Amino acid sequence: MAQVILKDLNKEFDGLHVVKDFNIVIEDKEFIVLVGPSGCGKTTTLRMIAGLEDITSGEITIGGRVVNDLAPKHRDIAMVFQNYALYPHMKVFENIAFGLRMRRFARPEIKRRVHKAAEILGIMDLLDRKPRQLSGGQRQRVALGRALVRDPKVFLFDEPLSNLDAKLRVQMRAEIKRLHRRLEATAVYVTHDQVEALTLGDRIVVMRDGVIQQIGEPMSVYSKPANKFVAGFIGSPAMNFADLTITGSGDSLWAMGPGMRIAVPAARIPGLRPRIGRVVTLGIRPEHLRLATEAATDDSGFDAVVDIVEPLGSELLVEVNAGSVAFTARVDPKARLRPSQPVRVLMDSEQLHFFDSDTQAAL
Ligand SMILES: Nc1ncnc2c1ncn2[C@@H]1O[C@H](COP(=O)(O)OP(=O)(O)OP(=O)(O)O)[C@@H](O)[C@H]1O
Ligand SMILES: [Mg+2]
After folding, report:
1. Residues less than 5 Å from ion ligand 2, measured at CB
2. Which numbered ligand comes closest to the C-alpha of 45?
3. What CATH number corresponds to the domain at position 314?
4. Are residues 78 and 59 in the same domain?
5. Residue 296: CB partners within 8 Å, gap ≥ 6?
6. pLDDT by residue (tens digit) across 310-331?
């Protein structure tokens, strides 16, 4: 059992508060992804779990044991770094075996473990090569092998794929997912790439400036972001936002802006009625917009002009301008749209998000 509990975890560097009241219970065998922009405290959090960084306050428990004062080598964890720095003069076998040798494992056990890891990773035929004779993806597998042979309770990954080119990254991402299913170990994985987070995590933790913004399963974070930051950070192209004023009375409310009058769906009216006369931020994802070229008077739409059309093969991204607001729509690749063309933008009203324009919290 390797449940990992981070309780009221804080980290300060010379007065700079970089991880703030971090709380999470990571279940045994769970794959948790910490995601957020550069400098938000992901690596620092991971290094505190590993014991490579002192904690300023709080408590870390691994497998039922408080490890605050336990040296890294006694924590039963293995970490895979972004810069995996293999020993260039050692063959792949020796690179993978190195940690076991340091721990004075017997030779037959070392051989057994290295071969088992190499088999899982599909690098048996590379064991006699030196790192410079390997491709980037093969080197990354060797780095994973070094962690695998340790057979730890918890794997920690710090952006292990960010040195790989885009195609290889997608391939290794799938391999890590497969690997996790097979190993059944607890994993904490750090990335600033929201696609990696969504695809890998059982749950994802979105961080900003050292503060957890939201913890949840990928699709629930995607469809119910807790605030505007999460809404804008998770998903690509990003969610569209517009600051609009709530108007109306009784059973009909509208979100109004220059050239925009959007009907508030019935289910959202009770929540937004107290905000009549005030500004809220409306959010809608690109896939929840449709572009109509015939004139239509739809309460959940507005008129706009096509600015840029980006064909991606399987879909078309269309940037449109309505007054001072730019929206991106993700539409059928067969749609015939040209720059400067007038369109009617229709919204799936079930998919509207509203945020407090001051606190940015979801309403
Ligand atoms: N040893 C240190 N001394 C002082 N400040 C540090 C130290 N290590 C990290 N920081 C600061 O702590 C903050 C969090 O850094 P951290 O490396 O955890 O960010 P990150 O989320 O991993 O970012 P990235 O995506 O760029 O790797 C940053 O402002 C960083 O400058
Ligand atoms: Mg980092």
Report:
1. 43
2. 1
3. 2.40.50.140
4. yes
5. 344, 346
6. 999 999 999 999 888 899 999 9
